[in-house]
Specification:
About 40% of the residues lie in helices and about 5% in strands. With about 120 residues, the chain is mainly alpha-helical. The protein has a two-stranded parallel sheet with strand order 1-2.
Length: about 120
């Protein structure tokens, strides 16, 4: 198996259904991708995924999040959180970010991390 929930510390695991986890793992395996290593058991972790090279990046990331069953919050540009999609993206763990004031982005991320304790 190329992806396993054992790569995630127990306290960082989500509560996603077994069916969603199994489907996500199968799709990751079919895609040919694998996830190596393990998430460190630290109080807080910030991961940065960049640059985005394809529109498939988001889909593969969500499959990995579901397959690993990890609790994750991610930042996305506010324009994708449109009515009809907002609830869905928030359910996926998304937090809208306004990029018109880049200097406030770090402060916003710090506030989000403090809130998510």
């Amino acid at each position: 198996m190329r992806i396993s929930e054992n790569q995630i510390p127990k306290r960082l695991r989500g509560s996603r259904s077994k069916l969603l986890r199994k489907i996500s793992r199968s799709l990751i395996n079919i895609s040919g991708w694998s996830i190596k290593g393990a998430i460190p058991d630290e109080e807080r972790i910030v991961l940065i995924a960049a640059p985005h090279t394809s529109n498939w990046d988001f889909i593969l990331a969500m499959l990995a999040i579901f397959g690993l069953n990890i609790k994750v919050k991610w930042l996305g540009k506010h324009s994708i959180f449109k009515p009809g999609f907002k609830f869905f993206f928030e359910w996926l763990g998304g937090i809208p970010v306004y990029r018109d004031n880049p200097s406030s982005l770090i402060e916003n991320v710090v506030n989000i991390v403090k809130k998510e304790r």
